[in-house]
Every structure is written in C-alpha cells, then in structure tokens.
Design brief:
The protein is about 60% helix and about 0% strand. It has one domain: Arc Repressor Mutant, CATH 1.10.1220. The termini are far apart. By secondary structure, it is mostly helical.
Length: about 80
Amino acid sequence: METVHIVLDKELLRATDKAVRRTKQNRSALVRDALREHLRKLEERASEERHREGYSKQPQQRDEANAREPEAAWPARVPCE
C-alpha cells in the first residue's frame, strides 16, 4: 500500500471520525471503502451512459420487442389426471 495525504475540511473530518467510531474502522479503511464505492458508481454511470449512447444511435425497432413475446408467454396449462 502507498501512503497519501489528503486535505479535509473540519466538517468532513468530523463526519469521518463519527463514521469511524460507528463502523469501528480506522480512517484509512473508511476512506478506502468510500473511494472504492465511489469509483464503482462512477464506472456504473459511465457504463449506463455508453448503453444510452448505443441505443440512441440504433433505436429499438417498433416490432423488435414483440418478436420475443411468444417465448415469454406462459405455456398452456395441462390438466392434472
């Protein structure tokens, strides 16, 4: 692991220390977890944006969704003997 220094304003530091006590972690672990989660969300948003762009370039055709409807339908019920 590498050691880095970050600057936090007083309110953020207080909130961090409160979360540290509540979660029984140290500051470094809390910041690592928070950063991982933030980076995961950023990647998720970027992926959603790529999908949005792709669908806008090639929009769904009118009957495209209907093509799979028979596969999604429940089978006819067979009476029990």
